[in-house]
Design a protein that fits this description.
Elements lengths: L8 H10 L4 H19 L2 E4 L1 H17 L10 E5 L26 H9 L2 E6 L33 H8 L5 E6 L5 H7 L2 E4 L19 E6 L2 H11 L31 E5 L9 H16 L3 E5 L7 H17 L17 H12 L2 H13 L5 H22 L5 E5 L18 H9 L3 E8 L5 E7 L5 H15 L10
Parallel strand pairs: 2-3, 2-4, 7-8, 7-9
Antiparallel strand pairs: 1-3, 4-6, 5-6, 5-10, 9-11, 10-11
């Protein structure tokens, strides 16, 4: 592995903009690393080396000419394959969109292009982001770089694995119920889901619109803050996007005294769930580290945690049913040659191109939205969601952040199931529209990474990044430790 790929994003950008290294050489190092490990990991669905090297050369020309460098000038990045890049395929890891070419750039892509980032390739994912293992992809299964017999998590498993394996310094994913932070925990990288509406979703393929958020993977919290500084901000094309101006989220990250100012809430309900003993031990040690640094540790209660799995399943599947309705085989995407009528065309186009997990969620979502079931299930779930949000807001009157394990179980082998309760503390962030970040905290005896998770009040993104960075400093996590693949 090329030593340049061990640099943080900040250091890479400084070296490129000073002329110490060339962006083209960094991009070539990424592709060399990908060639070495991709046959085992299968993190990428598409690599566009020619176009990436052309953009990297443009960054080098800019440096030579003395022009002002962008905030991420020449730095390589991976993009989850449900985010549009104009002129490139966007499959969402589904055969339905296998031949679809994006007609425009997503807002985050526009902003990354302006910042000078170099797009290395499109990362694998669960089909239409429906899954928690990256096994439902129609094209390939991504492996966990720490042990290729195990899943990397999902649905953004390709993005997590690419960063973990050193193929790219950072990447974009999407998070609907923990789809960034769960694979970040499984792969030992930093995964951040911003507050709902902080980052525009325009140009991202929708799964469940009231949950979805574009977020980031990186090796350090500071790299995360740099990327969020670029992609966050108002966008008139996303109606729920907050009308906030772009700010520098790296400001205040190195405050040495931040932990002394924080009240950290430990959820009382953690004891209600079966947690892997090694994860629980690592979490308790993490709490001790926070306490030793001066943080005030308090117990908080969110009684409606128990409703989270059911709430998520009902509301998410209902929104899936509505969003997937546009994939009808008529306007774009796969169209069955076997349809004999309009309804038959709809049925066969979906039946022949969509995977089991997608069909299952469509059917369940359609059921809960049915005339006889709407008030019994969907409407009731939305009312209970409000109860959950109120419980969370009450908890935040007693603490600054809720601190928990990122996942309640370790990665499983391919073919095994992740429990519904595994992601309960990450899913809460999506139900409440709250920011959440997973930070590595250690390794199990078998050599698999574990993470902890901060959940903060809505739009506390700058402060939660500061807290995560402070924990990162005291966690003794070695950012230069890469898996042997």
């Amino acid at each position: 592995m090329d030593e340049i790929l061990k640099d943080t994003v900040k250091d890479l950008r400084l070296k490129i903009c000073s002329g110490e290294v060339k962006s083209v050489d960094v991009a070539k190092a990424c592709y060399k690393r990908i060639a070495e490990v991709e046959p085992k990991i299968k993190a990428f669905l598409l690599l566009n080396e020619k176009e990436a090297l052309r953009h990297a050369a443009q960054s080098d020309d800019k440096v030579r000419s003395g022009a002002k460098c962008g905030y991420l000038e020449g730095v390589p990045i991976g993009i989850k394959d449900n985010i549009m890049i104009k002129g490139e395929s966007m499959t969402s890891a589904s055969k339905y969109l296998e031949n679809y070419i994006s007609p425009y750039d997503a807002t985050v892509i526009e902003k990354l292009k302006t910042a000078g980032a170099v797009f290395i390739g499109r990362t694998n994912m669960d089909e239409f982001a429906m899954g928690s293992s990256t096994e439902t992809s129609a094209f390939q299964k991504t492996a966990n770089p720490w042990n290729t017999e195990y899943i990397p998590g999902g649905s953004s498993g390709g993005s997590a694995a690419a960063v973990c394996a050193g193929m790219v310094p950072f990447s974009l994913g999407t998070d609907t119920g923990g789809s960034i932070r769960q694979p970040a925990g499984f792969c030992g990288v930093v995964g951040f889901k911003p507050s709902y509406g902080l980052v525009s979703r325009y140009g991202a393929c929708a799964l469940a619109s009231s949950f979805d958020q574009i977020g980031t993977f990186s090796r350090t919290v500071k790299d995360t803050a740099m990327l969020i500084s670029v992609i966050a901000g108002k966008d008139y094309r996303d109606p729920v996007c907050e009308p906030t101006d772009t700010i520098d989220y790296t400001f205040g990250l190195e405050d040495a005294d931040i932990l002394k100012k924080l009240k950290i809430g430990i959820p009382k309900e953690l004891s209600d769930y079966e947690t892997d003993p090694e994860i629980l031990k690592a979490f308790e040690e993490s709490v001790k580290k926070l306490k030793s640094e001066g943080s005030q540790i308090v117990e908080v209660s969110v009684p409606s945690y128990k409703y989270v799995p059911a709430l998520y399943k009902i509301i998410m599947c209902a929104e899936v049913s509505a969003n997937i309705a546009k994939f009808d085989g008529i306007r774009y995407g796969y169209r069955s040659p076997n349809g004999k009528s309009l309804n038959d065309e709809y049925s066969k186009s979906r039946g022949e191109s969509l995977g089991y997990e997608v069909k299952k969620r469509i059917l369940f979502g359609t059921f809960v939205l049915g005339a006889k079931n709407y008030h019994k299930y969907y409407h009731t779930a939305q009312k209970v969601r409000t109860v959950l949000i109120n419980d969370l807001n009450k908890a935040f009157t007693a603490c600054d952040f809720i601190f928990s394990p990122a996942t309640l179980q370790m990665p499983v082998k391919f073919g095994q199931q992740v429990s519904e309760e595994c992601d309960i503390f990450t899913t809460v962030s999506n139900l409440g529209g709250l920011p959440g970040i997973s930070v590595p905290c250690g390794f199990s005896r078998s050599g698999m990474p574990m993470g902890v998770h901060f959940t903060g009040p809505r739009l506390s993104d700058a402060k939660i990044l500061q807290a995560a960075r402070a924990f990162e400093r005291v966690s003794e996590w070695d950012i230069n430790r890469f898996p042997k693949i």
